[in-house]
What does this fold into?
Amino acid sequence: MAQSGEHEHDHEEHIVGGRNADEKQWQDAWYEGDCKNANRDVSKWLKEHISRLTDGKSNLRIFVPMCGAARDLHWLLEQGHEVIGVELVDKALTMFLERHGIKYTESSVPSIPSGKCYKSDDGKLTLYKCNIFDLDTNLIGKVDGMWESGAMTDIPPQERVRYGELLLSLLSPGGRILAETFTFGETEDAEGGSAGHDDHGHGHHDNQEHGHGHDAEEEFPCRPVEMVDFERMYGKTCKIEMIAEEDSDEAEDWGPNWWFKNRLHLVVRN
It folds into this structure.
């Protein structure tokens, strides 16, 4: 089995995965053991709503952007699908491959800056190491569906249309995107005003034009996603539906003045 390479830092000014959408911070989170998503279980919503993603079909090609080391990838393989993932950090990909005992080959990808490809020996899994916006979509071709687990929250609002265009360039007509996102905000204080900064350094969140009220310059650790984001990204060519919503425990980590909601959207290309 191929071994992971040295810890690499790409200093290009690209928008990427990671809670601050910063390449170095995202790599440091993995290599310094501070990535909270590294060991999470398979998404319950993926299990519950897989038929909405597949439309009851089998042997599909499913793309997972900004996949990390998610166990979701292996679960999708177990359902009989071919899986293609993209992730910035080598360690996340090799962690996933070694965790599940997957035999693979590693190769460089000349058409992608600092790109690598990890391909399983059975040909059912292909993982690309690169910035999501550097991905050579010609290498992938068309896919039938996408499992988008939180990646939109890591894309700055001003880059989401571009991100959506990239995904749509891969999605076949009739293809589906199942997108797990969240939104958050501050509650009103006892005097009816907006809550200020809490101990975590999170600033005021209000409902501005973009639907999420987040100033691109603010140092939020993540970015809320609203229906308006989906409409701007996919509204011209797709049907969009929110199919699940629940309160999130994340609010407990931020303090009493914050609320969080997890949401699941289905996007179906016309």
